[in-house]
Amino acid sequence: xDTAYPREDPRAPATRKPDGATHTALxxxxxxxxxxxxxxxxxxxxxxxxxxxxxxFLALAHSIKARDQKVAGxxxxxxxxxSRAKCYNILxxxxxxxxxxxxxxxxxxxxxxxxxxxxxxxxxxxTKFDDxxxx
Length: 135
Known about the structure:
mainly alpha
């Protein structure tokens, strides 16, 4: 059963106005603190991708620690470890995305530069010289 959204309490008494209409009483109190995220799935995929410097493995270790702290009830430590796992996951993603993109940019710019050089050298070799130039 999905309990992700708040439901009305069926045991709460409905108060009636004198004209017969019902209204809902709203109690304001301390907001519920959300459970910290441990980024476990993201860490597993970062680890399986096998990036350099083992950032994915570090993220997975911190995710596991964050989940353990969350189960133990230490939400502040779980929040801190989850934040570290997120940072390591971001580093792992950048470390795996930036070098191939940089290499692709270098190959494209190198190919463009070589094509311009080839056009210039082809014009050089097709030039006809006079015999008087070699005397």
